[in-house]
Amino acid sequence: MTSDTGIPRHVAIVMDGNGRWAKRRYLPRVFGHKAGVDTLVKTVLACADRGIEHLTVFAFSSENWKRPTEEVSFLMGLVLVAVEKYLARLASRGVRIRMIGDRNQLTERLRQACDHAESSTAHNTRITLWVAFAYGGRWDIVQACRAAMRAGVKPEELDEATLGRYMSFGDAPDPDLLIRTGGEVRISNFLLWQAAYSELVFSDCLWPDFDEDELDKAIRAYADRDRRFGLVKATVPVAEQATGT
Ligand code: IPE
Ligand code: IPE
Ligand code: MG
């Protein structure tokens, strides 16, 4: 096994629990989504401070289109508001933004906002924030197959590495640590391909309440894991591999 610093290179988060957070405060669900954006911005910067290179967040799933129209419309509008309010701050702090998901399902205005967020941060190198919006793990696999076929890849040429290059993350490393807040213990069609060997951490914390302590708790849990990738080896937690203790 390669050595590891105990800090994951790539963290992925299912930001779940916004609706329940609002409900507990006797507020409409959308207040939870709004608070969730503030938590996201703080989390990106906290991840960058810890040397995490990639953060992928699940913001809107392929299945979330089935929610009530008002909630879906609010979430679409929230992207525009978030870009307006936070893009400059994230850009100035070295964050590169990539949007992944089915852009064909978005309005032209939203597509433009996504393009703008990506192009205006493309030069940044401190951390890459991958925002999975209108994203589903199954969608990603299907779009990768289609792209490979369009590119003329022959069936006998298609292997895992080749298909992987057509997936939304391109050459980025797979997530090392996948966190889900909100108490549910499921993947909900997130990174079905890329999470093959991610370490999973589930937290009861509702997403708007997620903070640096929760992040550090998840990183500590990750550092204590023994990643074997199917191999047989002595059980040495990630953190001990790093220090050689
Ligand atoms: C996650 O929070 C955000 C989105 C799915 C857009 P939820 O809206 O699922 O909140 P809960 O799970 O109902 O509390
Ligand atoms: C997963 O949460 C999607 C996002 C956080 C964007 P959901 O709330 O949609 O997942 P389920 O319905 O509980 O599985
Ligand atoms: Mg939910």
Automatic annotation (TrEMBL):
Alphabetic keyword roster: Magnesium, Metal-binding, Transferase
Entry EC no(s): 2.5.1.-
Active site location: D16, N64 (proton acceptor)
GO molecular function: ditrans,polycis-undecaprenyl-diphosphate synthase [(2E,6E)-farnesyl-diphosphate specific] activity; magnesium ion binding
Residue sites binding Mg(2+) per the record: D16, E199
GO terms for cellular component: cytosol
Keyword Transmembrane helix: no
InterPro entries, sorted: UPP_synth-like, UPP_synth-like_CS, UPP_synth-like_sf
Residues where substrate binds: 17-21, 29, 33, 61-63, 65, 67, 180, 186-188
Note on how the cofactor is bound: Binds 2 magnesium ions per subunit.
CDD domains documented for this protein: Cis_IPPS
Record keyword DNA repair present: no
Biological processes annotated in GO: polyprenol biosynthetic process
Pfam family, one: Prenyltransf
Cofactor entry: Mg(2+)
Enzyme class per UniProt: transferase
NCBIfam families per the UniProt record, alphabetical: uppS
Subunit structure as annotated in this protein's UniProt entry: Homodimer.
The protein's role, per its UniProt record: Catalyzes the condensation of isopentenyl diphosphate (IPP) with allylic pyrophosphates generating different type of terpenoids.
HAMAP family: ISPT
Family (UniProt): Belongs to the UPP synthase family.
PANTHER family: DEHYDRODOLICHYL DIPHOSPHATE SYNTHASE 2, DEHYDRODOLICHYL DIPHOSPHATE SYNTHASE FAMILY MEMBER
Name assigned to this protein: Isoprenyl transferase
Organism: Piscinibacter aquaticus
